[in-house]
Batch of 4 targets.
Target 1
Amino acid sequence: MEFRGDANQRIARISAHLTPQMEAKNSVIGRENCRAKGGNPGFKVAILGAAGGIGQSLSLLMKMNPLVSLLHLYDVVNAPGVTADVSHMDTGAVVRGFLGAKQLEDALTGMDLVIIPAGIPRKPGMTRDDLFKINAGIVKTLCEGVAKCCPNAIVNLISNPVNSTVPIAAEVFKKAGTYDPKKLLGVTTLDVARANTFVAEVLGLDPREVDVPVVGGHAGVTILPLLSQVKPPSSFTPQEIEYLTNRIQNGGTEVVEAKAGAGSATLSMAYAAAKFADACLRGLRGDANVVECSFVASQVTELAFFATKVRLGRTGAEEVYQLGPLNEYERIGLEKAKDELAGSIQKGVEFIRK
Ligand SMILES: NC(=O)C1=CN([C@@H]2O[C@H](COP(=O)(O)OP(=O)(O)OC[C@H]3O[C@@H](n4cnc5c(N)ncnc54)[C@H](O)[C@@H]3O)[C@@H](O)[C@H]2O)C=CC1
Ligand SMILES: O=C([O-])CC(=O)C(=O)O
């Protein structure tokens, strides 16, 4: 009988949390009184924009990451549904959902890593810069929340245009007095994933064996694959270089056009974001030699931000690597990339300083 009593109490507790009344009473969407806390030692991760195309798949992938103990899913719509769904996966991370601006602070408090895929995606005919008008304000608001509630968190910024949203985030953090350049990382991992895939196709290799550094930024000509530095060392014909560079630079547009109005890359992007977040968490844990490309504050060129390989450690991007030797084709590409990047960075900075 004692056992039955305990079990009944447990069931009553759980059922109570399933009622809409209780959900409404709770400031967060979760199961606060349940015993099952996962109990994993690990990191606390928030996804802002978790109900979107990228956000949903990314939530699934982060729920599967053994380094995550607590996963906060925030969005202005549909966060409860995504949270309920993902929370039934029998992996270690405990999942809590947060809906709307009033719950942003709860979503962010105590987080080690904040991943931001919030904002509108492109439709055919648009550039990433066409998203600035709407996404700049979204990123500003969310980063103000980060500065207030988890100023020491690592931020992985996905929302486009990354070439401008990263400078916007930096300015927000500077204004709040919390800016640590090592902790603000623009996510360019999808460019590397595409480059590895397309180069592997040309070379007839497994993409997992290929490593292509992609530097610069995350839009059109600012995406600069360094094919002269591909591992394993490989040579390409001028036609192959032209084909690969164009395909990598226009990979996002290829998906936007194929989706024909239904958005941009979400599945490959969630994969890339999960890979990059995992690298950040391994760095936070103290693993050695965690190296990824990312758009960060940089002294590699005269620009304030630039994507190169960075070494991720306990405090974020602890080392920003130089470009290494470039061939003539890449030197010309670098000048074009810098010209466009300069304007995009300036636009982001001015959005906050105006
Ligand atoms: N860095 C990269 O390599 C890539 C970046 N992106 C960018 O990621 C962003 C998201 O793309 P999708 O997931 O496809 O778009 P989506 O429209 O499917 O999802 C965006 C989500 O953000 C949410 N949202 C809007 N305002 C918000 C706010 N203030 N706070 C929290 N959430 C908010 C929406 O409710 C929606 O659930 C776009 O800007 C897109 O261009 C997309 C692919 C690659
Ligand atoms: O192209 C877009 O709009 C989305 C994006 O950044 C990408 O897929 O690389």
Note: Residues 1-187 form a domain with the Rossmann fold fold (CATH 3.40.50.720).
Target 2
Amino acid sequence: MPSLSSLFLKLLTLGCQHCSSKTLERKVIQVNLGVMVSAATILIFDVLFYLTGNWTVFYSGLIQTPFLLLLPLVWWLNHSGRFFLARWAIFIIVMSDTAVTLFLAQGTIFLIHYYFLLFAIIPAAFFEIAQWRSSALLFIANLSLYCFFQINGWPSLPEIYELQAQQLNLLRVIMVGSSVFTIILLLLISERYSELNEIYLERLANTDPLTSLNNRRHFIDNFQQILLKQLDQQQLALAIIDIDHFKRINDTGGHDAGDEALKHVSHLLKEHIGDSGLLARVGGEEFAMVYIDTESATPINRANTLLLKLENSPFYYADQKYKITASIGLCIFTGQHNLDHVIKEADDALYSAKSRGRNRQETRNIA
Ligand SMILES: Nc1nc2c(ncn2[C@@H]2O[C@H](COP(=O)(O)OP(=O)(O)OP(=O)(O)O)[C@@H](O)[C@H]2O)c(=O)[nH]1
């Protein structure tokens, strides 16, 4: 049995699986939420109407019941990916609901026609820019309805005048207040989604899609920050790790095998560095690491441990075993150093490790 919050989340995100962008997702969520707010508004008013004991307001609550039952149709349309129809459906349902209640029972005495102002503004948030004709049409229709009722008014059924002035005012305030509340809620969702969008784009720009490690650009930024903050006596080490004969894995098992091998190595590197340093995929089969916390073991020991770990963790793909080894270029340094200088020293060390037979580390110490 799903909990109430997971059910709420499920209803709120109905249709998001079909969305190709965060903006579309936000709009779908807004429509789903619109269904909830509309249903809650109708139900809350039904209770309030019942409490007044007044026949007309009770009757106007009853009139709304068929529209309440139609609202899940909007969820279903979103769920099946028919977003455009879902948007129109919600407006047709809530506009008809308001108009019928206004015409047949309440008239304009509760200021219910203020809802048309809300329905005039909201389409801009629900529809996409390319669907501006729908937004414009709904804007004109709702604004015209509002102006008509504001100027002419509409009589309510006579029993309504039996309500006390206080009850009338309270219901008016709640009607207008619920419109304002809905607008605030939609603005908050937009704001939250803009934030999430920003975080998502930033992560996309900083991450290597295959291994989910940081990419070269992000690594260089972070490394530069570390160098700027580095204390004079602090020892740091940059390790550049290059998988040996990686091309052979691609040639033997295909490109997919190569991709899986890169994920396998990334996993081992993450385990090795833990939370205490920087790690990134900086090229095809090349990774970079910065050892920050070098107190427990020297960088050279750590690099040797890593070589053994890689060698002793074969990789399997399509029932075939691949032994993976790597070469490491290490640059150990203390004090202030230029980023390009440190990278060049580590690169030279890597070149030397490759040319001296691979599966080894070479170190440059520029302390
Ligand atoms: N599967 C896969 N292969 C990649 C990717 N990026 C680069 N490569 C391959 O990695 C191979 C790198 O080959 P080389 O530069 O010759 O390096 P190597 O075979 O590891 O040889 P050494 O580094 O000299 O030991 C090339 O065949 C690239 O096509 C990737 O994302 N996925």
Note: The chain has a mean pLDDT of 90.
Target 3
Amino acid sequence: MASYFRGYSPSASMPSSTAGASFSSIHIPSFLDVSSPTTTWLCTTGAVLVSLLVLEQAVYRQKKQHLPGDKWTIPLIGKFADSMKPTMEGYMKQWNSGALSAISVFNIFIVMASSNEFSRKILNSPTHAEPCLVYSAKQVLQPDNWVFLTGKVHVEYRRVLNTLFTRKALSLYTGIQDAIARKHLSQWLTDAVSDPSPKEIMMTARNLNMETSLRVFCGNHIPDEATVEISEKYWFITQALELVNFPLALPGTKIYNAIKARKIAHAWLELAAKNSKIAMAQGAEPECMLDEWVRLLADPAYKGRKDFSDREMALVVFSFLFASQDAMSSGLIYGFQHLADHPDILAKIRDEQDGVRAGDVEKPMTVEMLEQMPYLMAFVKESMRVKPPVTMVPYKTIKPFPITNDYTVPANSMVIPSFYNSLHDASVFPDPDSLIPERWLDPNSSANANPKNYLVFGAGPHRCIGVEYAMMNMALVLANASVLMNWEHEITPESDKVQIIATLFPKDGCRLKFTPRHA
Ligand code: HEM
């Protein structure tokens, strides 16, 4: 063995060009020279990197323990690729892998809860977990937005905002909602005359929702150009709502574009708050949500805070836009699709409309009229059960959260209550994938006996503040559409597939052909 090496010793015969040269004179690239500072640096860096990668795996496995989920996480990025292009099939696989399961994205440890018990436990444990929304939300909503408040401060702030959704306030909004819905539906019909082929309603329904929201919230305190501009730019915000996004707001990134869009919207909303205060100070009657809020603040009987700056009001209104635009659009688009695919249900809705409106299809909708439409409301509820706009809400643990006897979610993890399995639980909703509004009309049905399963609007201290308004708006638009127009669904191979853009949408954008009902 020794002789073998000896044959390759530096003193062995060398090609003539190097023979006789000393070993030290042979050029060795610095990165191979163990004595060079570069090599030392490279070795150290390599060792540190390897240690970090090993540590990353060890930490992941230590946090995950026995939960279902990958045994190893992809270094640094984890399941980032999956979170960029989420699919229903992927989520279902995850939800069905266990009532609790683990993943990691960019070293954020995530526990997904898919059962009703665990999802509700997370939503109702404010001392252990609080909403964190998606990663980009803080940058888009701004860190001092009220939606990031927690605990007692959140409860108190929300108490003031609840007054914007009372029955009296909702009655003020229905007139605006009705007028805007009719304006848009009429435009849809006009557009269908010039081109009668089926069209995706993805963007047209979003525009309807956006103008409705802006006019309900801001009335005429912003010009028409503002509603158009906000509507157009808002798509950038929707696109930035991925579960985990590229963290830096560098030019060209989705978050950068979303922040730019928010700045435009925020400037208009601040102007609306200012104009509302001026109008109300001049003795105008409340015509929108901001007016109602300003009136309330000036009421001598009011016991809450009175110092809401224009900026703070704009932040609140923006939070409502942020929370409602995608969810309402998803709910409405599936509402149209479900009715087109179930003419029997649409016929029952029309019968109910005829009864309440006494044949007058031009009669503006009121809260009282909506209260006389139980079948329509049951349909809206059922449509969102079958295709819940929001399938999950990210929360984060603020301290170790002993969610079961044998598993504690570590502090600073994401915990994601998911709603889909609760809403499709066959023991509560027999034939769970079928659209059956009647299940909500029988007071003794298992659906009505288990309200805890209806998680479409979440649960606990952060349950959707706009639930009644949202239900009412969807019902109002569909009621008006049902009496004013017919629509046919062009069914494509993608119609029943779901795409996730923050909320759920039919993958083909829902292609409908509209014609007037009473031509
Ligand atoms: C179909 C429409 C809607 C759906 C499906 C929906 C669903 C949800 C869900 C699942 C949550 C999270 C609840 C939780 O963490 O437990 C939520 C929160 C919220 N929603 Fe909605 N929402 C809708 C419409 C609206 C509308 C129209 C508004 C306002 C006008 C609104 C305002 C909010 C706000 C402000 C929160 C946060 C509440 C808090 O943290 O206290 N949402 N919504």
Note: The first strand starts at residue 100 and ends at 105.
Target 4
Amino acid sequence: MIYTVTFNPSLDYVIQVDDLTLGEINRTTKENIYPGGKGNNVSVVLSNLGHKSRALGFKAGFIGDQLEAMLNDFGCDTDFVPLENGMTRINVKVKSTEESEINGQGPAITKEALDELFGKLDKLGKGDVLVLAGSIPNTLPEDIYERIMEKLDGRDIQIVVDATKDLLLNVLKYHPFLIKPNNHELGEMFGVKLQSDDEIVLYAKKLQEKGARNVLVSMAGDGAILVTEDGMVEKTLPPKGQVVNSVGAGDSMVAGFLTGYLNTGDYKKALQLGTATGSASAFVSWLATKEEITALLTKPASEYGL
Ligand SMILES: Nc1ncnc2c1ncn2[C@@H]1O[C@H](COP(=O)(O)OP(=O)(O)OP(=O)(O)O)[C@@H](O)[C@H]1O
Ligand SMILES: O=P(O)(O)OC[C@@]1(O)O[C@H](CO)[C@@H](O)[C@@H]1O
């Protein structure tokens, strides 16, 4: 079974404001509300690609209830821990001449609620896949992903971590199956600005030296570079298209990569499917469907087990 964990899920309010001006009343020309949070997005796209998963995390207030209902409508199984106080956040994504995002702080997570989540995670075992994705509310300790991985260490669970800075660096000693920083996040972790593919590969390998098994570095419109545990270094370029909403492109890439890998056991195919899935989501108003993804594949979908 695949499990995703989103510590700070959201509803995403995606609005088009043609000419955003700070300090003025701005009017939208388009608005939509989608379920959000990185792990939840991975669950939605996995479901679109035919993989069942269970979305874990926390929900609070009526926004949390709505989030869960929307995820269930999109075919995702959820098992959220309810929080007694606070409200699941609403993240605002503004599409104008540029894309801007305002992400909420999110509700406080109590020790009891955290224990309940750990109780659910304790049931995972051999053959399960766990995706830990996104930021954590500032009420939680920075080592929370590390604690989860320490608890699950040695159970033969394939763990994917999509996080930044110390949240990611601290888990590497537990040998995550896959990590997916983008090129900016990779540079930030080492305090450098990465200028070339060679530099990206060099720093991806440094993350492997610290314990990561496979490192997938996404580069938005420039595609992605994968460095695998068996020494393969592979770059893909994204298909051409018009970006409509790139929120969730990275999460889609993770879902596509996992699907490709689980269906074929082939890292190269996983990278190709991951790239097409990321781009397919960037080219539509929300996370891509299977049809939208397969339309961007250069080989028959059956080659990826779809
Ligand atoms: N402008 C674009 N054109 C084509 N493909 C894109 C574009 N932006 C993203 N993608 C696809 O999505 C993948 C992931 O994108 P990106 O590197 O932006 O991830 P990210 O930074 O984790 O994104 P997010 O946090 O918004 O989900 C890219 O490797 C590419 O395949
Ligand atoms: O605040 P975080 O956890 O870093 O990111 C949250 C978020 O921006 O990530 C998703 C896209 O990847 C959105 O659905 C969501 O709003």
Note: Residues 2-304 form a domain with the UDP-N-acetylmuramoyl-L-alanine:D-glutamate ligase fold (CATH 3.40.1190.20).
